[in-house]
Amino acid sequence: MRFDTIFSMSACCIDGTFVSADSGETFSVINPYDGSLLGNVPNAGAAETARAIEVAQRAFPIWKAKTARRKAEVLLQWYKLIMAHCDELARIVTTEQGKPLAEAKGEIINGASFIRWFAEETRRLYGDIVPGPCPDKRMLVTREPVGVVGVITPWNFPMSMIARKVSAALAAGCPVVIKPAPQTPFSALAMAELAIEAGLPKGTFNVVTGDAEAIGLELTTNPIVRKISFTGSTRVGKQLLSQAASTVKSVSMELGGNAPFIVFDDADIDKAAAGALVCKFRNSGQTCICANRFYIQDAVYDIFVEKLAHLASSLKLGNGLDPNVTMGPLIDQYAMDKMHAFTEDAKAKNGRIVCGGEAHTSCSLFYAPTVIADATDDMRFASEEIFGPIAPIFRFHDEAEVIARANNTAYGLAAYVYTKDMGRTWRASERLEYGLVGINDSRMTTCEAPFGGVKESGFGREGSRHGLDEYTTLKYTCMGGIEM
Ligand code: NAP
After folding, report:
1. What is the pTM of this model?
2. What whole-number distance in Å separates Cα of residue 349 and Cα of residue 167?
3. Distance 286 CA to ligand 1 centre (A)
4. Which helix (H) or strand (E) holds 279?
5. What is the mean pLDDT of residues 74-87?
């Protein structure tokens, strides 16, 4: 497979080879910008997944036995190849997902940074020698790869979601079987191509496209698979968790969010509005750490609404491949229908549409960047994840009240606070029940820091020095009978 032919290659990747589904069936992948057909990929199911799991299991001892230095070299080579092909990969992401090219490049660079990070971390997979209670014993703790990992990813970051999970798994010594989202399989296949070129042994990197239920059931119930790493909705996460229980698999879950974005009246309002724009409208609002609820203190409420609406209205919607475009389409009609429903619900409850509030004419999947003032806690988006370009603005009076309202959700992924008060930054960071808290900052994702949620946003962490823990187990070896 080559990049210029990737859309015409109808294949999964099993055992280092690009293959069709057993049935020969395929499904179509559509460009969300104009509805054009990009290509077809195999509609594989349980049998192909079982085969991918078996080859991964065969590859496991081979990859596990490589020295840390060798694993690091291969991962680093994968990183270099991705960076060398950054422009082509970004075009694939934009074409199948819709985001503007600059954002797609940012995604490739961010995803690749995780690969480099874990290439470095694999050489520091240290264990412990524990001071023991008996003079004739020595106690060792080593970190071992957990085994074959099943990886299931969504369409909103088709490249970086895979990079984050797979680089940690491989660095720990685990082979992977990936099920990418059906909207964005070509990014996954392009990454497989580069992983093979980088020198990963056959069977360590497998991609199976097709029937989510069948592939998911095989991944979560096949006893060979020892770990499931999932990013997606809380609804599907709960289903996978219960399926994985049957074989007591280790599980990491990166699930939905309902991020509060709190602006106190002492904040720099220009910076808060600029941060809000990125936080809300990046990727057309289809980001798990997107601000979902804006809480603005009384004294700065009107000015914040005005500034954010002004910035949102200046976004340029269009084909993500056009370098002047700053916002792309939504992923599908279901997402469009959801935006209409949120807006109608807010209007019926006296929400004030400051800008947007309707479909944008230029393409069937464009929803205009929308700011809704006078939002109230009985509106649907107070408790539901929007996952689109709607910014509801709630008013608040004091700190205790806003922290309580921000925490009043089943989710706990990301929260944002804008203030210049030092005491308040500490109190907010300590009291917000979230896995990530951005203080005067709305771009916090980086390979050096742990990413993940609490409550129904899931558990487990990606990136950081903790990221490898998700793919390793601790082994305690006790060596007795040592003569003194
Ligand atoms: P989704 O519907 O849960 O789908 C995610 C992935 O799971 C897709 O590949 C999907 O494939 C697959 N899937 C669905 N049902 C399955 C099943 N029964 N067995 C196995 N796989 C199954 O989520 P989405 O709408 O694509 O993505 C948006 C959600 O992801 C949002 O809630 C967002 O917050 C969350 N997300 C979270 C994070 C995070 O880090 N916490 C990051 C990004 C996104 P099919 O489409 O073929 O069903």
Report:
1. 0.97
2. 47
3. 12
4. helix 269-281
5. 98
